[in-house]
Structure formats: C-alpha cells, structure tokens
Amino acid sequence: MAIHKLRRFVGEIAELVDSTASETALLEQGGLALRELIRVDDWLPEAYAQPSPDRYQQFLLYTDVRQRFSVVSFVWGPGQRTPVHDHTVWGLIGVLRGAELAASYERTADGTLRQSGEEIRLDAGDVEAVSPAIGDIHRVRNAYDDRVSISIHVYGANIGAVRRSTYPPDAPPKPFVSGYSNTTLPNLWDLSKEVRHS
Ligand SMILES: [Fe+2]
C-alpha cells in the first residue's frame, strides 16, 4: 500500500489552505493535487474500501487538526445513491474506482429546487468541485448496479460534523449531520522504513 501518497496529499492541501485566500484558486490547485492522488489506485487501505449492503459508506481518512479540511473515502455498493443534499463548504470529488453519476440542482425563482442539466458521469480519474459559490446541491449515485465504486473527497471542514440539509421532494429541507462509518483512521505517519533506509 502506497499510503505515502495520501500523506503527501494532505500536506499539499494543508499548504494550500494556509496560503490561498481565493476559493477559486484553492479548488483549482487542490483539484490538481486530487487528480494526482487518484491517478493510480494502489494506496487506499482495504478497511476504508469496504461497502455495506445497507447504505453508502463515508470513511474519514484524515482531518486537519484545526478542522479546516477533511479527506474521506466514499464507498458505493452496487446501485447505491445519496439523497439530494448540500455541503455548505467547498469540496472536491475524485473517482478512484468505478464511476459515479451526479445531478446538480438549482433554486428556481419561487424557491423550489430543480435539476439543472443532465446527470454527468465521473469515471476513475475525474474530479469535480462543489461549493456554495459554484453550486452546492446535488445527488450522486454509483454508475454501476453490479459493482462497487469509490471516490475520494476533500472538504473545507470536518465534513462529518457539519450541519447540512437533504432536500426531499415536495417537503421542507431536512437537517442532517453525516458522521462517519469508521472509528479509527489509517496510519499515515509510520516513517520508520524511510528513516531506517535513509
Ligand atoms: Fe455531495
């Protein structure tokens, strides 16, 4: 497992968050870093790649000590989907394995939500951004009915603890806090091999 790739990625995002005031620049440069992270599927530990038959899984891989950002693996069982939901913070979504279909929603003049445009397909290696500034409400599903898909997300907060909303059809928005599927995190910090061989 090439877990050093995840360690390098969280270092890059920490530096970007430290040095970048513009969300546009952060999403652009963070998107390049995420694209590099998902380019080769050889680093995600198995424990954080496990689907559940009941619902999609969200595993926390890392959160910044000041909760300025977090990284998660999203594991979709065959045919699984999210409700229509928001994020309230910036986010980058990159597909590591399989493929996803994402539909964006926008508010109409009378305040109701409407799907804007066609569903878009994200294949392994593709990256997409969300944020309140560029469009924050969407619905996502596994593109496959017969296999698992996995995406890696980075968000501008400890996303599992953020008060967000889902948007059921013909009903008021429903508050939700997503939480995480795991109670322990991958160990990015065992550098003993590198140290012994340097
Ligand atoms: Fe989302």
From TrEMBL:
Top-level taxon in the UniProt lineage: Bacteria
Membrane is among the record's keywords: no
Gene3D superfamilies: ATP synthase delta/epsilon subunit, C-terminal domain (1.20.5.440), Jelly Rolls (2.60.120.10)
Alphabetical keyword list: Dioxygenase, Iron, Metal-binding, Oxidoreductase
Alphabetical list of SUPFAM superfamilies matching this protein: RmlC-like cupins
GO terms, molecular function: ferrous iron binding; oxidoreductase activity, acting on single donors with incorporation of molecular oxygen, incorporation of two atoms of oxygen
InterPro entries named among the record's database cross-references: CDO_1 (IPR010300), RmlC-like_jellyroll (IPR014710), RmlC_Cupin_sf (IPR011051)
Binding site for Fe cation: 85, 87, 138
Alphabetized Pfam families for the sequence: CDO_I
Similarity comment: Belongs to the cysteine dioxygenase family.
PANTHER family: CYSTEINE DIOXYGENASE, CYSTEINE DIOXYGENASE TYPE 1
Protein's name according to its UniProt entry: Cysteine dioxygenase
Species, as recorded: Trinickia terrae
